[in-house]
Amino acid sequence: MTAPVRFLTGITTSGTPHLGNYVGALRPAVEASRKPGTVNFYFLADYHALIKVDEPARVQRSTLEIAACWLACGLDPEHVYFYRQSDIREIPELTWLLTCVTGKGLLNRAHAYKAQVDKNTAAGVDVDNDVTAGLFMYPVLMAADILLFKANWIPVGRDQVQHIEMARDIAASFNHLYGEHLVLPQAQVDDTVALLPGTDGRKMSKSYDNVIPLFAPREQLRKQIMAIVTDSSGPGEPKKVEGSALFQIYEAFASKEETDALRKAYAQGISWADAKQMLFERIDREIAPMREKYDALVNDPAQIERTLQRGAEKARALAAPLMAELKAAVGLRNLADVAGKAKKKEKAALPSFKQYREADGKFYFKFLDAHGRLLAQSRAFDSPQQAGQVIADLKKGAPVDDPAVAGTLVLADGVAAGEFGAALAALSAA
Ligand code: TRP
Hints:
CATH architecture of the largest domain: 3-Layer(aba) Sandwich
Strand content: 5-15%
CATH superfamily of the largest domain: HUPs
Structural class: alpha/beta
Radius of gyration: 26 Å
Distance between the termini: 16 Å
Number of domains: 3
Bound molecules: tryptophan
């Protein structure tokens, strides 16, 4: 029996969700959470918020608003894991264990940190200006979020892919030192979800000050839609859909038929005022029922707090046993527990597969005997899934000349096929 696939996503609680977050993250995530055969984790990354925000009231308010948004958009806390990062004390605990296996050089390459360094360099100030250790350590905290729940897939935007790769590297380092305890996660970037332009036509983003809040009151929503930048063509003049922010936003909410109808109206010279009215009504039709739920939730923080507490309890039921396992693995143990040592030895006496990535960007694995001697080396794979699949096939006992496996590995010098087979059998039997 294969375990269900785990998806995990965190949302930094440093702002108010806008239409771009809804279209790009909330809506697809709520939809995905209903897929059978998956286990889904959604959490409010409030420790991450502290990296950017030093106003306590804002962190609290944002946490409330974001929690209310997810619930109003239909996330069912009974069917998913929905919790607040700071309620899971195993997260900072794991962060430290991971910190101790993370190279400083790896963190030096993180985009968020490098961007600040580049900015400082350009401004001619000290490179470490405005760089807290929190910003520098951000990828390790994020790795702990992910690895603590053995998540397989992390749905993220392109800007976060590097962090997931770092989490993978960190997990691999830990496993290499202490045994196969952690699951290597992968980024899932969905290019089919809409990237929403903001009111000025650039990507909708708080840093451009062009956002439309998701649950603004109806009248404010109308005002902000009326403020979307358009060209100067007058009523009756045909309009171009290419490069029209208004059209792109409409498309993200409307059906194909509705979108085709607006395209036609553009060609026939619909006035910008009428087009904006259409957009307003279309968005409001989708948002209004959720807005009502949102308003009720935000006005009842105690209820949200209870929901989050229940979520934390559920999440900690998974986190606590793994954390105990990891602490034991690194040697943070009950001093009276000497049986642990014997068990560890037993475990270490098994052959193992090691997956890794080379500087060429390709994925590989090695097969080592119980003493760490190289038995076989794989060829290059384009994705970690492909490498993982071959390992899974080998573990299931696929003969080495099986078409799915043949040609994917080379025995190391001096290793006989029989020795390889015996090690594989020992591993499968364990
Ligand atoms: N850093 C992410 C962001 O800013 C939020 C986040 C924190 C996250 N921990 C995570 C996302 C774990 C995915 C998995 O968007």
